[in-house]
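Bench notes, afternoon.
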Amino acid sequence: MAKKAADKTPLTFNWEGKDKSGNASKGAINAENLTEAKAMLRKQGIMPKKVRKQTYSMFSNHNKPIKPLDIALFTRQTATMLKSGVPLLQGFDIVANGIEKAKMKKVIYDLKSDVSGGTSFAKALERHPKYFDDLYCNLVDAGESSGSLETMLERIATYKEKIETLKKKIKKAMTYPIAVIVIGLVVSAILLIKVVPQFESVFSSFGADLPAFTLFVVGLSKIAQDWWFIAIIAIVAAGFAFTKAHEKSRGFREWLDRTVLKLPIVGQILHNSAIARFARTLATTFAAGVPLVDALESAAGASGNVVYEKAIMQIKNGVSTGQSLQNAVTMTGLFPPMATQMIAIGEEAGSLDMMLDKVASYYEEEVDNAVDNLSTLIEPMIMAVLGILVGGLVIAMYLPIFQLGNVVG
């Protein structure tokens, strides 16, 4: 029964009352129920007048899902608590009190319950594989074993923050142009379905032949009116099929990852991103004392691209048979000379983790600059596409009017 009670996520109650001096006071307190909240307030010398369970609007962060940045923040805060001398269990309470997301709070209190019951922190994390991957758990385990948990958590937090920043930059590079083009297509579809038919009824009263471009657009409008529902179903089905294929088929993922790496500009950004993630993961794990072969396996899983994942596993096999890391990396043909040379220097000088960290920082900066340049280059291209899509439709509709004006003139 005690274990069951400990697993409950405390609720937040807002209270108003008087403190020991009789002054009006208010605040918030975490408790499992209203009765416990009032009892806790009385123990603190507060006479509560109003105690209400905190409510959240549908737009608040309370019920939102846990994201990788939430895990990074939790890791950073826990590391800070431990470095300040706060015991781990008390640190869980302090961190949970500052978090609004109910799901994240639940995870933290679950971790606290497991650790207070005698489970190691790493084993407690393994019970939440959705949020804490093997790399995270292995690094925490290494930190606990070596007695440097706070340092290891700080290193993990830095790693996750940098990786998530990198992912955000890649998403920015990919989503901005796609979003603008999709909006352009939607606007064009609305014009074809709703606006063009109105012009068509006006044109029918002219009694003259319409320009070829206008006839083409009118034909597109009729197709759009007749097939718009089927088109939407086809797009949704294609999106669903793409998602499922990406989840289930490694061959499809490899083909897709290989294809996007060949794209102009974007492909180079993805290459640099994969190299940065490889170097950052390997630097973090190797510095934590993880054997190089095991560190390479973690780096393969964190590369974010099936092509690089296969290449890193090839590197792992080479290293496990006695090859130097630099030779194994060079053999893949994926990594640029600058990265392989820095790895060679790191191996020679016995500072591999430091050199890998420099490689990661360099390629992260390359990604950052490339994304900024891409945004600058792509804006005029997007405006041109939108101009052709929307402007073309408008011109097609006004051509007959201009033609009629010339005849009348």
